[in-house]
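Hey,

The postdoc asked me to send both predictions to you directly instead of through the lab channel. I've kept everything plain text so nothing gets mangled by the mail client. Protein one:
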Amino acid sequence: MLAQPPVWFIAIAFLCAIGPLVFLHELGHYLVGRWFGVGADSFSIGFGPELVGWTDKRGTRWKVGLLPLGGYVRFAGDADVASRPDSAQLSEDDRGRSFQLKPWWQRFLIVLAGPATNFIVAILIFTGFFLALGMPNSPPVVGRVLPHSTALAIGMQPGDRLVSIGGTSIETFEDIKRTVGLRPGETLDIRFVRGGSNYVRSAKIAAFDLRDQFGQSARIGLLGIVPSTQQWVRPPLLSVLPQATRFTFAITRSMIDGLGQIISGQRSVKELGGTLKMAQMAGQQARLGPFQFIELVALFSINLGFINLLPVPMLDGGHLFFYLVEAVRRRPVSDRAQEWAFRGGLALILALLLFTTANDLGSFGVWARLGRLMG
């Protein structure tokens, strides 16, 4: 078992992972904004007091803030970093470059560009991996059934080809692991083909506590089968980008499934991790090697894009929701309604930040140690 990396190593690894992703996210907003003629007053990586910065010839202040937990582009016409409308009177020149006075569809695309950039970054990373190393592409065919397993209990045999699990179509053995792994203890319909005949069996997925190289435990689901062959293939050049895109959105679907299970109570809310857990993961994967670290950066990028698309005021998804409402109503949502929505969104984000931080500290054993000291 490997020892945990030192705190300084974790901090550097986390900044190296999250800093470029935040920069590229905000750069997506900035570049599409410039494409539509929107001016930018400031471009910041991090929040709080400015540590270092410069002003370019267009008047945009590029800076690094003290708290490296995000970033923002403040466009002309924004009242604050959350892009709420500025009610002040604008000059004719400022009106032409104001974000708030652009058509709703241009504002929609400017906001969408940030999360979209994160997904593009992940797709490009996986494209590079697939070109350099190949991609996992084992057929969903049973090679061996493990004893005392769910697969054995429902009568699966070597040579069976899985078609779907719980309504999710299966194309590779990796799809099986991804689908089953998220559903420990759930009862699912498993469809497979044997000798040209179709079979459907209802089975309760076994739960297994898996420990990683650092001794941390994660509860996963296991069907109890081994693939007939382990294949890594390099896709044809013209298909590698579509394959990387499919792989990225398969991971995104897994994130959506996991979040849905937490909301519905199928998984514990203690599984929600926050910034401290992400930092720990960055340090661990950096210690394992560059490929593991870059793969984690791709996962962080997907996570950042996905979270920002949630329809929560203060996040990009909240803005996108308002612009869609504006498109339907043919007029913007009132300033008062937006004000209350942003306050609610800020309260929700702060509450979630506190909750996930408490979860992270609990996973590090902080609360258990405090309990022993107090007892």
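Protein two:
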Amino acid sequence: MKIQSAKFKRSAVTFERCLAPDLPEFAFIGRSNVGKSSLINLLTNKESLARVSKTPGRTREINFFSINDAWNLVDLPGYGYAKVSKSQREQFNEFVSDYLLNRETLTGTFVLIDSRHTPQKIDLEFVAWLIEAQLPFALIFTKTDKSKPKVVLKNVGLFLEKMKEFSEGNPIYFETSIIARTGRKEVLQFIETAISNHV
């Protein structure tokens, strides 16, 4: 897939304020500081499309970006720093769960995992929730250039092994590096195929 245009469309702080559901959508979510904004900028080839911040939890709303006027890339708030109340399901806010459960044009969700770390409970809980809700997703292990290859291999393997406790079979996953620009082509190809199969 060649990215010819990538434009910010809207921010929403309630489900009702979301962009009109007219195009296939792919959502990106992960713990704060997982490198989500940098990955979005890499995928779209636009350095400043998504705001990159050194302060975790800057994304407080859902941000919609139109890609090639053909599909929407959706930047979801990081669930590690989301404000949680007793009534909120799992470890992320109700607004995000409403979007994931009820958005009719949501075609797939990418869950970003920091490859520098061993499996984190909050990531595993979120993936388990997606499986329980029967929502299609793929994993993206980020920051692979920040560790030695054998460390990345070990951490990815440990995460997949942990998933076997609540899931059958291995999930689709990608490994990305902003510095080396690896994984971009594979993720975009996956999206292109998913759109073709969805139509």
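Summary for protein two, as requested: Helices lie at 36-44, 94-102, 121-132, 149-163, 184-198.

Thanks,
C.
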